[in-house]
Write a structure and sequence with these properties.
Elements: E1 8-11, E2 17-21, H1 23-31, E3 35-46, E4 51-60, H2 66-69, H3 77-83, E5 100-104, E6 119-123, H4 124-130, H5 153-162, H6 185-189
Parallel strand pairs: 1-4
Antiparallel strand pairs: 1-2, 3-4, 5-6
Helix pairs in contact: 3-5
Length: about 190
C-alpha cells in the first residue's frame, strides 16, 4: 500500500505564497532548476541510485507577475475570515468560524455596502457592542483596514487553520503583527 506523501508550498521569488503543488511537481521544478528548496520534510523518496528529502517549501528563482495570473478573489464569508486570519478585528482575539460574524464598518442602514473594503471579521460580542454604529462611534479601533486581498486567502488561510504543515507557518502569515512575520529575501539570506 502506497503511503500518502505531503504536498509542497510554492512561493514566488519575493516569498509570497503562490500555490500548493504535489511533491512530484516540486521535484520536477527542482530538477529543472526553476526553484530553490527552503524547507524539507523528514520523508525520503528513494530512487535506484539516490535518496531525496521531500521538499516542504520551495521558492521560484524568477518572479512571476501575479497581476497577470491572479484571478479576482471571490467575495465570500470563508475568504473574509481567511483575510482577517480568523481574528476579531476589534478585540484582536482568534476565534473558530462558528464564533465569528461579518461586520459592516459603515452599517447597511447608513448605506454601507457588502464589499471587501467595508466588511471586517468580528466576534459576536464585539459585533453586538458596535451595533448600527461606526467603529469610531462605538469606541472601537479595527486592527486592520478592510481591503480586497491580493491573493487567495481561502486556499492558504483555511489550510493554515486546519491542515497546513507546521513547517509552512512562517511563510503563510498574513499580518505584520503575527509572531512570525512573512519572510523577505533579506531575512532568508541572513
Amino acid at each position: 500500500m502506497e503511503r500518502h506523501l505531503p504536498n509542497t508550498l510554492l512561493l514566488n521569488a519575493g516569498f509570497e505564497p503562490l500555490r500548493i503543488v504535489s511533491w512530484q511537481r516540486a521535484f520536477a521544478l527542482i530538477f529543472q532548476e526553476k526553484v530553490e528548496i527552503l524547507e524539507e520534510y523528514g520523508f525520503i523518496v528513494a530512487t535506484v541510485s539516490r535518496h531525496y528529502n521531500i521538499p516542504a517549501v520551495i521558492r521560484l528563482n524568477r518572479w512571476v507577475n501575479l497581476k497577470r495570473t491572479s484571478p479576482i478573489i471571490r467575495f465570500s464569508r470563508a475568504n473574509l475570515y481567511a483575510r482577517d486570519n480568523y481574528r476579531c478585528q476589534y478585540c484582536h482575539k482568534y476565534f473558530p468560524e462558528r464564533e465569528l460574524t461579518l461586520d459592516h464598518v459603515l452599517p447597511v442602514v447608513r448605506g454601507g455596502k457588502k464589499t471587501w473594503d467595508n466588511i471586517l471579521t468580528a466576534c459576536i460580542r464585539c459585533n453586538q457592542r458596535k451595533g448600527h454604529r461606526t467603529p469610531e462611534e462605538a469606541g472601537l479601533k479595527p486592527l486592520n483596514r478592510p481591503v480586497a486581498p491580493r491573493w487567495l486567502p481561502g486556499m492558504v488561510g483555511s489550510m493554515r487553520m486546519r491542515s497546513a504543515p507546521e513547517i509552512w507557518a512562517r511563510y503563510l502569515r498574513l499580518y505584520s503583527d503575527d509572531p512570525f512575520p512573512p519572510l523577505r529575501a533579506a531575512d532568508h539570506e541572513a
